[in-house]
Amino acid sequence: MVFSSTYDAFVPSNYTQFFSLGIQPHYVPFNTLNASFIPDLAQQASFTYAKRFTPPTVFLHCLRVFYFGLAMLYNGFPSQTPGVAQISFNELSSRFYHAAVLHDIAWSSDPIVTADPAHGMTFEMQGAFMSYAHLHLTAPAYTAEQVGDIAESITLHTSTWAGGNSSATQILLAIAVDFDAVGYDAFGPGSLDFLVNRTTVAEIEAQFPRGDLAAEIIQIMEKQFEEKPNSLLSHFPGGPEGFYEVLRVPPIVD
Description:
Blueprint lengths: L5 E3 L1 E3 L2 H5 L10 H6 L5 H13 L2 H19 L11 E3 H14 L8 H4 L8 H16 L5 H12 L9 E3 H15 L15 H10 L5 H15 L11 H8 L8
Antiparallel strand pairs: 1-3, 2-4
Organism: Roridomyces roridus
Protein name: HD domain-containing protein
């Protein structure tokens, strides 16, 4: 498999429908993924901004999410479907990079973040608002559609849908986040075995170790659920306890 020059800009939101479109777990070395994307100044600015505020263990999660998404693009993400608008690899990987590194920025305890006017919102929406403002400041050449896709993808990354369409950016972010948080058993035993090759996963995890991610997420989300019982993630099947129960503690590939 190789990276396509373009990908479907919109794909089914329903995971079952999306997964039927043909992603395969071929091995792709981390070095190949890493060489495919060289951050420009705007992307470097998002990296710096996210690293400043995102808890360190969570920031490594954000970086794993990006590389898991790249592996999906390498291994059969829908492309050149007749009648479906296309987005170039360069454009999609750029949008996805911003969304991946910025998506958990609202989990920060930094006073700048907790004093942000959007702090009363569910963390996904605060992250989107902060990212929207950041991108307009640091990437003024980006169009409203580019910034909107990134911000909307961050807003929706913990939400699932029975029908409709998602942007390529949004589905990559949502699935890669789920995969890193839960692993191959995200939707039942072995349900994501086809998604990313295990050797590729091991190489990504070696670059960005998991640490005690599950404990840190639980600590952050316990506070969020207490302060905002109607947060978007409260709709996870089984509620907060259901979410805590499925979080992956050891590396995805032991």
